[in-house]
Amino acid sequence: MLDNLALGFATATTLPNLLYCFLGTFLGTFIGVLPGLGPLAAVAMLLPVSFYLPPETALVMLAGVYYGAEYGGSIASILLNIPGTPSSSITCLDGYPMARQGRAGVALLMTALASFFGGVFGILVMAGLAPVLAEFALLLQPADYFAVMLLGLVAASVVSNSGTLRGVMMVCLGVLLGTVGVDVNSGVTRFTGGVQDLRDGVGLVVVAMGLFGVSEAMTSARGATPSYATEKVSWRRFLPQADEWLRALAPALRGSLIGSFFGTLPGTGQTVASSIAYALEKRVSPNRAQFGKGAIEGVVVPESANNAAAQTAFIPTLTLGIPGSTTMALMIGALMIHGVTPGPRLISEHPALFWGLIVSFLFGNLFLLVLNIPLIGIWVRLLQIPHYFLYPAVVVLISIGVYSIDHNLFDVWTMLAFGFLGYVLRLYRYEPAPLLIGFILGPMMEEYLRRAMLLSRGDPMVFFERPGSAVLIGISIVLLVLTALPRRKQKA
Amino acid sequence: MPATSRLTIAILAAGLAMTGPAAFAADYPERPVRILVSFPPGGSSDLVARLLAEKLSGELGQQFVVENKPGAAGTVAATELKNAANDGYTLMLSNLTPFSVAPTRFPDTPYDPVEDFTHIAYIGAVHLGMFASPELGTPDMAAFTEKAKAEPGVLDFGSSGVGSWGHVFAVAFANEAGVELSHIPYKGSGPMRLDFRAGVIPVIFDAVPQNLPNVAEGNAIPLAVSATERLATLPDTPTFVELGYDIVAENWLGISAPAGIDAKITGTLQEALATALQSDDVVKQFDTWGIVRSDMSSEAFADYVAASAESWAPLVKQASE
């Protein structure tokens, strides 16, 4: 392992690699901050540039763009309540309340530190266990993946701070919205109302930007959002209180562990990781009463989980050649154009590429930290822009972002419709985060459910015969019951 | 000398007098050209388009820009191409799905794959392979069909989706071979290969290139390929035709434009593409990606697209029953 890391260091510390790593994280952060543009858009934008670089440098740069954009997404989540990715919608839950309490600086600093912590944790897991973990994904079958998705959905309904019932309702609505489009198993189009543009379903970014971004702008226009222009920008105000440092350590560790684990499962990755980590923390944290009202743990946990998962997600991508997400598919494309085919022999055939990439993650995460701590002051100043300038600008940016995905105006109108839906839901205290996670995980859960049933020729026992799926389904039930129970007691 | 200069002037004057629509075609390209790709960035078709775009930009002195328009089985991109101006500034990396499969699969497809387009040049093709898991214990096709006949409906096969070429081809194969297989559809090749490696499904019908690492590792046994001749990448694997099955399939790639494009533009593009396809790095990349190149005139390519759509139609209908 030490030899490998030494090789990795040698590759990662060449001047061009360091430079492109920095450039990648830098551009990634700035693209990620723009509402409507997430890691996928950022990597897609810079993919053509990578064609002109050697494969190691190309991948180092794109990886930098990827986690830079992930981090940039959390900035928009905290400041404006607009998550760049579904996983950062969990960060909104406590990050945005913190910003509204005038503690945006603290939230941003903790996000940077928690991301760094989770990222480094994930890197260490990768460096130590990648060859072992490579085969791990092959132990799981459709029934197990179904159970992982189910747990993710239960966790998403439990994270809701306005009651489990509301959370479950929102998750179910999300799952239903996710069924729009062509059904995988029959090829039949569902719930499209004959609209051609809906054949592939509603776009994720369209839903996320509508539910969060547009509805936030509508709420601010109503004057429901108090102005936080009074926050003073000074270094002292960015530092958490002494006891908060200690309180953040255990959640960061738990989040990183959960994140590293779920990152290695192709396709489940960050969304499942951050919702499960948040749901778990909400049960075990001594400070759980504060969750949803600006608890520092509520920012630390999803961010550390999310970033640990972002790193370990490279394991199945590179060693099995199977992309866990569209962003990862782009990374594989970047390798393929250089004639490197990801697969079981990648680590042995291209050790410099694999270990160089891992070590570059370390530098990339460091760059992120160095880059972003001085920038916190600037980000916080954004909030001093009067709302009547800020939010219209945000809506314009979001619309451009959404339009740029497929150059289709239909998407922009759909986004505005979701904005209206989000506004109505907000009025009645329904949170959009569980809806968004249901929208992502629901179709995946259905796919695995039906595949497992097809394979078992319709025998549902398959979910209980496999130990992995049986245990996860058990945990899901317990989690749901435990969360529902105390509320009943309080009422009685 | 004076005589020649006078002649030159005369020709120039004649040329100026003819300035009009013809000049547009002669000066093509004068501004950037879009190449629509019916897949998201990063896939193998996208990479082919980007590689060729770079080559064409170099040869014709204008930027060729790749624009990804994925969705609805490629019909989004093809519809946009049909509706674009036929001035040669909008092209598409045409391929099997939107032109040969979709018109039959989706009766509401708003274009005719032959009438509404100018098919400019054929680029090459990727072939389909039938891969069995080593755990199945069937080292060749004969052993497989024997096993499949012994237990009808028990063996599962994976394809990259309902109505995908793998699915359509597998149904045609099962009919020819007289076997009954159960279809497990996936959303694309990646997740299917994961389940194949994990031992969830014993057989897959998938494009050959992305399965070569698994074959090299001994994790997949190629039973047959869908080409007319054996592939350079799998020289020991027979074709379906060799084994007595009358089925051939190739996912072809080409460059197409809207209908009624000027013949001069077609000529310019054809020539530039022919040069590009013969350049060393394109040859090398296509070989590593498993794309089989082939030359075809524009007329031959148009006939080819028509024949492809016609031959796939009954198979697609059969698979969607």
Structure characterization notes:
The complex is a heterodimer of chains A (492) and B (321). With 492 residues, chain A is mainly alpha-helical. Chain A has one domain. Chain A has 22 helices and two strands. In chain A, α4 packs parallel to α17 and α7 packs across α8. The longest helix of chain A has 33 residues. The relative contact order of chain A is 0.19. By secondary structure, chain B is of the alpha/beta class. Helix content of chain B is 45%, strand content 19%. In chain B, strands 1, 2, 3, 4, 5, 6, 7, 8, 9 and 10 form a ten-stranded mixed β-sheet that branches. In chain B, α3 links the parallel β1 and β2. Chains A and B meet through α3, α15 and α20 of A and α3, β2, β6, α8 and α9 of B. Chain A: Keywords: Membrane, Transmembrane, Transmembrane helix. Chain A: InterPro entries: DUF112_TM (IPR002823). Chain A: Pfam families: TctA.
Secondary-structure topology with pairs:
The complex is a heterodimer of chains A (492) and B (321).
Chain A (H helix, E strand, L loop, with lengths): L1 H11 L2 H19 L5 H12 L4 H26 L7 H13 L3 H33 L5 H18 L4 H15 L2 E2 L6 E2 L13 H18 L13 H4 L3 H22 L5 H16 L12 H16 L1 H7 L5 H11 L9 H4 L1 H32 L4 H20 L2 H19 L4 H24 L6 H4 L1 H25 L1
Helix pairs in contact in A: 1-17, 2-3, 2-4, 2-17, 3-4, 3-15, 4-5, 4-6, 4-13, 4-15, 4-17, 5-6, 5-13, 5-20, 6-11, 6-13, 6-14, 6-17, 7-8, 7-12, 7-20, 7-22, 8-20, 9-18, 9-19, 9-20, 11-12, 11-13, 12-13, 18-19
Chain B lengths: L1 H16 L3 H7 L5 E5 L6 H17 L3 E5 L6 H9 L6 E6 H10 L11 E16 L8 H10 L5 E4 L5 H13 L4 E4 L3 H9 L5 E5 L4 H5 L4 E5 L24 E9 L4 H16 L1 H10 L2 E2 L4 H22 L2
Helix pairs in contact in B: 3-10, 5-12, 7-12
